[in-house]
Amino acid sequence: PLHTVTTMPTERQPGCPFDPPKELIEAREQSPISRFPFPDGHQGWLVTGYDLTRSILADPRFSSRKELMRHHPTIDYGDIEVPPAPPGEFLLMDDPQHSRYRKPLVGKFTVRRMRLLTERVEQVTAEHLDAMEKAGPTADLVTAFAKPIPAIIICELLGVPYEDRGRFQENIDKFLGGEAGDEELIAAYIATQQYLAELVAAKRANPTDDVLSDLTDSDLTDEELQGMALILLSAGFDTTANMLALGTFALLQNPEQLAALRADPGLAEQAVEELLRYLSVAKQFYRIALEDVELGGHTITAGTTVILSLNTANRDPERFPNPHTLDLHRQDGGHLAFSHGIHQCLGQQLARVEMRVAFPALLNRFPTLRLAVPADEVALRPEAADIYGIKSLPVTWDA
Ligand code: HEM
């Protein structure tokens, strides 16, 4: 039987900020794969089942190439030409092009390397908690905590000088946040590219101790390095920030789980995996069939766009019993929040270190942390944003 989802939902259910839109949950209950007619008339597919999502992510017959991604799930752009990804922007390339860029980076983001960063993450976290405590009670957890910590760490890794950070972060926020108007967005994007070009030139002239300087010692061109830096920044800023803010919100709304984590800091590793699964802020990606593929009893014909709903797949009851319950003691790993296959998140060990440090440190510093507004007044990102999350999270505590 062929199940069809006619439009991509643009909102979540009121009062359920952590759950994928109910239309997607219902689609998965019908079938792990549904037909999805795009607004421009393209007949695509929507995948919501865990097993099928995972197998497509690992299947080289499905492409991530930017120039093939011509259909938008909510906007009719008509018959447009999409240029290929610029040099270095390997998230939207297939192998072998993709591995030219990913390979030299892998060794810089290993578990061991990221563990060495733990102390620095602890320091930066403590500094932000100090500042928050001093200025409060009441704070916006997004601006005081969730955004600056991952931003500082990724800037340090890349070697962005301290004095450039403010302006730089502002521009990145604008073009990733889904809030800026078109003109502002384009201006912020251009400013970021210009800055990265200057940064690459500076690292070539005067290499320092950071990932970007290390990469200048290779056959990668300036343009390629600039593209790689852009991917690292855009992937590393916004995702972790939204996990920290939304994760805190989810814990505050699940007081028993919050108490369990507070009582046992040893639970942090498991808790972070469960929050990743439960929230899945990087909620959906696209793949294009390069040839006809038989899947789940259907033929995906060459050239067809497939939407992979990672957040719905991470709520598949056949893989995760009671999937809509946040259970920090959950043992069944294997969530897809960092994707799977050749594009599986390069920065996942860094993100894990940041979250394993930051959540317990926050809870420890503020034993009475709570929302400063009713939960239904917390300003969430629109469902149209690529990364789900929170605009601001007003919190307070007993001084
Ligand atoms: C790729 C999620 C943090 C760097 C990805 C993908 C996902 C993801 C789902 C794969 C997309 C696809 O399959 O097409 C997340 C989440 C994060 C996070 C949920 C935070 C909790 C980071 C950080 C970095 C980073 C901190 C910084 C270095 C990258 C890069 C890629 C990537 C470079 C592209 C990999 C490739 O195409 O080979 N991330 N990410 N991510 N991520 Fe992350």
TrEMBL record:
GO molecular function: heme binding; iron ion binding; monooxygenase activity; oxidoreductase activity, acting on paired donors, with incorporation or reduction of molecular oxygen
Residue stretches in coiled coil: none
Region Disordered, annotated ranges: 1-17
CDD domains (alphabetical): CYP105-like
InterPro entries listed in its UniProt record: Cyt_P450, Cyt_P450_B, Cyt_P450_CS, Cyt_P450_sf
Entry keyword Metal-binding: yes
Entry annotated with the keyword Iron: yes
Organism superkingdom: Bacteria
Keywords tagged on the record: Heme, Iron, Metal-binding, Monooxygenase, Oxidoreductase
Family: Belongs to the cytochrome P450 family.
Name of the protein described by the UniProt record: Cytochrome P450
